[in-house]
């Protein structure tokens, strides 16, 4: 019997035990966004233990190459900004790094994004992310966005069936705020021209440089955002997700926030792991216990979250 199968089975047993201990093997809410004791637990977990992009892609990830919103108009989006670091400090099983660069011009600006399949809706989303307050190269000051989020395509401007929920860290300010801040934003819909939005958001000011566990709870009634287990934002049913989303990370520059310099600067964001549990609201501590159980069983990737029927297109372009 393959050792990878044995490890996954051990992890499933550990996770089943943890699930009963932490949530009592009961539904977490009534309705279509709940699981039951008779429903096998569906999870997605990636420890980003990669050495090649082919292995990354084989597990369902895509790099964005499509130009366009958001960010600097005319900038490129490329997989060149994605790198793997299997022996990184602070990331036990390795990590993936996003690196975006600019010299203030569109021609020399490269944004970075990677996306998983569009099959996630209600449940717990979590990731361990390293935010940075300064560039790894060049002068500081550009308005740069470091993110973890879930999103659906927008069928047309102001279409009501749209889903998006974001963690966005702005170490040099932006969006009308001059100081560094973390934003939690939940979207009902929007249009680009003229700019119109229907959303709810919260901000917390001050440096968050370093490793943090970011957790989102999504139901059809409410959204909650947590930083290292601390409740940060609660948003209403008006902006709760309505259609399946993909899981995303990106790193990009605002269109208006470049400093007055043509020196090349490079910004980075690191991701240790990402986790999703369908139809459950798990605390950050419970998520971390699940991750520890998977690691104890030497599972670096598992995905039992079913595709939609039929599978939905999964564009990597927002």
TrEMBL record:
Keywords: Hydrolase, Signal. InterPro entries: Beta-glucanase-like, ConA-like_dom_sf. GO terms for molecular function: hydrolase activity, hydrolyzing O-glycosyl compounds. CDD domains: Glyco_hydrolase_16. Residues 1-21 form the signal peptide. Pfam families: Glyco_hydro_16. Gene3D superfamilies: 2.60.120.200. One of its GO terms (biological process) is carbohydrate metabolic process. Residues 32-272 form the GH16 domain. Belongs to the glycosyl hydrolase 16 family. This is Glycoside hydrolase family 16 protein. It comes from Exilibacterium tricleocarpae. The lineage of its organism: Bacteria, Pseudomonadati, Pseudomonadota, Gammaproteobacteria, Cellvibrionales.
């Amino acid at each position: 019997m393959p050792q990878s199968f044995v490890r996954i089975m051990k992890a499933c047993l550990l996770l089943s035990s943890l699930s009963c201990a932490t949530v009592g093997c009961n539904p977490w809410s009534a309705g279509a966004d709940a699981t039951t004791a008779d429903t096998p637990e569906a999870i997605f977990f990636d420890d980003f233990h990669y050495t090649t992009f082919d292995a990354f892609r084989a597990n369902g990830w895509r790099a964005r190459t499509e130009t366009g919103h958001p960010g600097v108009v005319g900038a490129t989006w490329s997989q060149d900004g994605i790198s793997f670091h299997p022996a990184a400090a602070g990331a036990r099983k390795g990590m993936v790094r996003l690196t975006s660069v600019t010299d203030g011009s569109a021609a020399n600006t490269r944004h970075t994004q990677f996306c998983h399949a569009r099959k996630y809706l209600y449940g717990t989303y979590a990731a361990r992310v390293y935010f940075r307050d300064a560039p790894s190269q060049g002068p500081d000051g550009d308005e740069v966005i470091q993110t973890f989020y879930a999103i659906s395509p927008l069928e047309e401007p102001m279409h009501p069936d749209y889903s998006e929920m974001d963690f966005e860290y702005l170490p040099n300010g932006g969006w009308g705020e001059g100081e560094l801040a973390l934003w939690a934003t939940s979207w009902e819909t929007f249009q680009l021209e003229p700019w119109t939005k229907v959303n709810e958001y919260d901000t917390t000011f001050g440096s968050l440089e370093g490793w943090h566990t970011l957790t989102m709870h999504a139901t059809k009634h409410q959204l909650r955002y947590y930083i290292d287990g601390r409740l940060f934002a609660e948003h209403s049913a008006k902006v709760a997700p309505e259609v399946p989303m993909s899981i995303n990370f990106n790193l990009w520059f605002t269109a208006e926030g470049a400093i007055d310099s043509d020196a090349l600067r490079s910004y980075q964001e690191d991701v240790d792991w990402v986790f999703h549990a369908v139809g459950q609201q798990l605390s950050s501590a419970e998520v971390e216990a699940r991750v520890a159980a998977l690691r104890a069983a030497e599972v670096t990737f598992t995905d039992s979250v079913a595709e939609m029927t039929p599978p939905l297109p999964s564009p990597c372009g927002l």
